[in-house]
Amino acid sequence: MGNESAQEIKKAPPRAPKRKPTMGEAMIPIGSMAILLGVGYGWFQLSVEILLIIASFIAGLMALRLGYNWKDIESGIIESIAKAMPAQMMIIIVGVMIASWIACGSIPMLIDYGLSIVSPSLFLVTACLVCAIISLLTGTAYGTAGTVGIAFIGIAQGMGIPLAPAAGAIVAGSYLGDKISPFAASVNLASAAVRCNVIDTIQHLLWTTLPAFGIGLVVYWIAGSQFAVHNVNSDKIVIIQQTLRTSFSYHWLLLLPPAIVLALTFMRKPAIPGMLISATVAILLAAWLQGKPVINGMEYCVSGYKASTGLKEVDQLLSRGGLQEMMKISLIAFCAFAFAGIIQKAGILDLLLEKILKVARTTSLLISSGVVAALSTALVTGSAYLSVLIPGELFAPAFTARKLAAKNLARATQEAHSIVPIVPWAIAGVYMTGTLGVSTWEYAPWAVFNYIGFLFPMLYGAIGFTTAPQKNEDESLPGS
């Protein structure tokens, strides 16, 4: 009897049942993150990592209040980070690739030739269009920015063109293919989420994508003429080119490392093995053409390439890459996905999307709600895939009930997904910052295509333009 009583005393009190958050409770962690990032980073320039950790702590406290324990919170964080690991691995490998490409001379040679060919006044337009073509052929924004994007950033530095607009133009061009290329994962995922044909989705997207892209090109054309007048110094460009030519030996084989990445991407092969093969070839070329021992090339891949050409501008241009540099960038993504994991586990994101869906009483409001839901998911989670998957699953029945073609919803989520590379804590924003060497906050205003695209489906929904009715119950069939 005494033992039974002792065991009863030792039993932990029953845990409060988990419950759904109220709207006020849901807004506390969301509002806290917005204030912390807006004031802490925007005003006081505090590290984004610590601000995201504080936001995660606040979200964790709210999860505890809702009946979740530490194990629940921990599992939410782990699940969120696990989903981001493939992209995180790519970010890290990009650091290896950049360092090896510089060491072998590929990037210096591309920069040199680019300085001779590209017109300063048309630089932004050219960078955007070239990146757009490559991304349309390969279907990847990451691969485009990580190859030709890197070269264009170097050309911009050599010409004295501000890096913020240069990076913005590169990001915008890279994401054209990510949105409408049949090879892109995101457009296929958006179509799969709402169960419609991907070609129909792409054709439907052209009505909103091309006007937004065209507006961006006009902005780059106007801005480019100003940069050409005020920033470009032809004497400085000549000195940079001469320094590059005396510091590196050129050979047509130096085109091989970027060609390997583009070719394997076009063949739909896994990106990371292709990047590692490219880096290996680059290290061997560095030993053969530049006289840099293989062991040194391997060290560059870890610590980054350190240029010593004797010209400060060139040294700053080429001292980049390496695992260590990218790991610092990846910390932001880890902290952001910790916050996103807690928010999702506690049901806060689900509540926000449900509230958005409830106001959609007309076709116009339904389409706008789908866009806003995708935007909200992208901002809260920082995940491009979740921004099309979650709203797609949630809103699909409402679009079907209103006899609207599923491709309307796929378009709405895909347009909103384009803002992900201009969200500083999103994996895409972290990738672009690490690859191009320009902070998200700086290039975001210049990635015009990425932040105005979502306005067009909302406008079209309001006036009924290109809002397609449902034709077939099975919308996976072409022509639905």
Characterise the protein shown here.
This protein has 480 residues and is mainly alpha-helical. The protein folds into two domains: 90-325, no CATH class; 326-463, no CATH class. 75% of the residues lie in helices and 0% in strands. The protein has 24 helices and no strands. The protein has helices at 2-10, 23-41, 48-65, 70-104, 106-117, 123-138, 141-159, 163-180, 185-194, 198-230, 234-247, 256-266, 271-289, 294-303, 312-318, 323-345, 348-358, 363-381, 384-401, 406-417, 427-436, 440-443, 448-452, 455-463. Helix 4 packs parallel to helix 13 (271-289), helix 5 packs antiparallel against helix 11 and helix 6 packs parallel to helix 8. The longest helix has 35 residues, at 70-104. The mean pLDDT is 85.
